[in-house]
Amino acid sequence: MPKPIYALGLGCERGCDPQEVLSLAERVLKEAQVAASDLVGVFSIDQRQDEPAIVQTAEQLGLPVTCFNAQILEKETPRLLNPSERVFALIGCHGVAEAAALVAVGSDGVLLIGKTKSAHATAALAVKE
């Protein structure tokens, strides 16, 4: 039986405290009982590819960061558990964390943990069995 593929999606406001994003990521992984070593990477939107909170969280978890543009993330809207009109108005897609995680695992994947929020960040976990 093939090993499941897990992908962590992250989103955050500009200038977000890196510790806030790392704590949120760890909370989602703990809830799902998934180790960072089981992840294939950290995924987000290209508008945050250089955001220190995203980059440092990936580094702390020992994972690469892959970012997608808003058009690619928007295609995942029908599969999102928490689509947001506010996010769409701001960046052109209805969600970042959930959509990025879903893109990473592909069309056969599902959200294991939907959008989870902290004060300035979001995280979601997708899996492909």
Automatic annotation (TrEMBL):
The UniProt record lists the keyword Methyltransferase: yes
Superkingdom classification of source: Bacteria
Keywords annotated in UniProt: Methyltransferase, Transferase
One GO process term, biological-process aspect: cobalamin biosynthetic process
InterPro entries xrefs: CbiG_hydrolase, CobE/GbiG_C, CobE/GbiG_C_sf
Gene Ontology MF terms: methyltransferase activity
Residue span, CobE/GbiG C-terminal domain: 7-126
PANTHER family: COBALT-PRECORRIN-5A HYDROLASE
Protein name: Precorrin methylase
